[in-house]
């Protein structure tokens, strides 16, 4: 079971929602303080018509940096620690994948090398990014797709693909989603009525 989560930006807040599979009627909303700060994070539980807010402690201060994905009762989103004070934490990467278990309400974190997009891929979390973020005009840019095989052991399957389409530079396309069969979908970033609109599928 998976669902895409829409970040709801309110005053000093960003929220993610997901389904707790232990009971089919239980939904939870994770509300993170923005910008990051201690003592402001909360969980809202919807169950049998009741709504309950509770404060929750996250050990690693971070700002939510992406929309989220919910897979099998775990919320995933990209966090940015660069503007947050984390005394006593060994921060090895600016970006982390934040994993929030809806059942236990515990946070875990997985380091990633750079900013990336999060997608649902065949029942697992995957991240996608361009190898050279600065070379916007490259016709042969390399696309990286990492699939998280084991959350606890931080084990990834890593794939690399070369963008070889001659019509567009990679800066002219953006990822828009994933098909049910696992194809990653890209489309043009800009569209005018004077030009055709292209959609690209990455099959692997």
UniProtKB/TrEMBL annotation:
According to the entry, every stretch annotated as the F-box associated beta-propeller type domain falls at 25-201
Entry-linked Pfam families: FBA_3
PANTHER family linked to this entry = BNAA05G37150D PROTEIN-RELATED, F-BOX ASSOCIATED UBIQUITINATION EFFECTOR FAMILY PROTEIN
- Give the protein name, as stated in the record: F-box associated domain type 3
């Amino acid at each position: 079971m998976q669902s895409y989560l829409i970040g709801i930006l309110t005053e000093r807040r960003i929220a993610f929602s997901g389904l707790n599979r232990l009971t089919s009627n239980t939904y939870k909303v994770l509300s993170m303080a923005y910008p990051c700060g201690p003592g402001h994070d909360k969980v809202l539980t919807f169950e049998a018509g009741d709504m309950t807010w509770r404060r929750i402690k996250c050990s690693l201060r971070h700002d939510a940096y992406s929309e989220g994905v919910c897979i099998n009762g775990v919320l995933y989103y990209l966090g940015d620690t660069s503007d947050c004070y984390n005394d006593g934490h060994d921060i090895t990467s600016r970006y982390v994948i934040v994993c929030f278990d809806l059942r236990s309400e515990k946070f875990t974190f997985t380091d990633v090398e750079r900013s990336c997009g999060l997608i649902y891929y065949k029942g697992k979390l995957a991240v996608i990014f361009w190898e050279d973020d600065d070379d916007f005009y490259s016709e042969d840019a390399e696309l990286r797709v990492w699939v998280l095989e084991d959350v606890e052991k931080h084990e990834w399957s890593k794939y690399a693909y070369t963008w070889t389409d001659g019509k567009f530079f990679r800066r002219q396309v953006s990822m828009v989603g994933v098909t049910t069969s696992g194809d990653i979908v890209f489309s043009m970033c800009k569209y005018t009525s004077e030009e055709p609109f292209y959609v690209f599928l990455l099959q692997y």
